[in-house]
Amino acid sequence: MVIDQYHSGLSCNVLVLNKHYMPIRIIGARRAFSLLFRDLAEVVSLEEDRYSNYDFESWCEISRFMRNFEPDGHDWVSTVNFYIAVPRIIRLLFYDRLPRREVKFNRRNIFARDKNKCQYCGKRQPTSELSLDHIIPRSMGGKAVWENIVCACTKCNVKKAGRTPRQASMTLCRKPAKPKHNPLVHIFLGHQRYRSWKQFLDHAYWSVELK
């Protein structure tokens, strides 16, 4: 099977369940198709508020039907001979789970954790207007860790300067902490494309990393 790598459908994300239907991570469409093609996973598809399971061959067959009758309801990639719908959810067949990974400490995840809000004035700002602030400045021994870095708008960052919030008479909106789960998943859940994920995302059990 050769998939057109330039098709926009390959930019979609796919929720991965273990064989016990517990969500374990989010992967790209290309890797999802690789797992399906090698019979390491099956598609779990939401159809009229019910979930159906398909192996790769049957998913190809139903994709032909969906392409004819509901082409706008799916994202697509093209093979040499036909189009195939990008699954929203796949279920692993031979693994209880994939290795859990901690949430990466990076700018994108800090912005997601703080929901693009300045943690001093509380105003939501575009990413271009936000910077990262060390609560305890590095000049005072402050470390680059989840608990010491927050989003701050330009105005608040200038006001705080190289001081602690107490010294600058400023108050944090909330105490920063390391996220237990990837904060970016909430961005995907707000998209209609991924509404079928919600039933599986029990916060007591899942831990996902975006790829």
Short précis:
With 211 residues, this protein is of the alpha+beta class.
Share of residues in helices: 10-25%
Q: What is the radius of gyration computed over CA atoms, rounded to a whole number of angstroms?
A: 21 Å
Spatial order of strands in the largest sheet? 2-1-7-3-4
Largest sheet: 5 strands, mixed
Structural class: alpha+beta
The count of helical stretches stands at 5
Shape category: elongated
Low-confidence stretches: 2-7, 202-211
Number of strands: 9
Strand content: 15-25%
Distance between the termini: 23 Å
Average pLDDT, rounded to a whole number, is 82
Number of structural domains = 2
User: What is the H/E string?
Assistant: EEHEEHEEEHEEHH
Characterise this structure.
This protein has helices at 29-37, 56-69, 107-113, 154-160, 185-189; strands spanning 13-17, 23-28, 41-47, 50-54, 76-78, 83-85, 89-92, 130-134, 149-153. With 211 residues, it is of the alpha+beta class. The radius of gyration is 21 Å and the shape is elongated. The strands form 3 sheets. A 5-stranded mixed beta sheet has the order 2-1-7-3-4. A two-stranded antiparallel sheet has the order 5-6. It has 5 helices and 9 strands; from the N terminus they run ββαββαβββαββαα. The chain has 2 domains: 8-101 and 183-200, no CATH class; 107-160, Orthogonal Bundle (DNA Binding (I), subunit A).
Q: Which features characterize this protein?
A:
alpha+beta, 9 strands, five-stranded mixed beta sheet, disordered N terminus, elongated, 5 helices, disordered C terminus, 2 domains, 211 residues, DNA Binding (I), subunit A
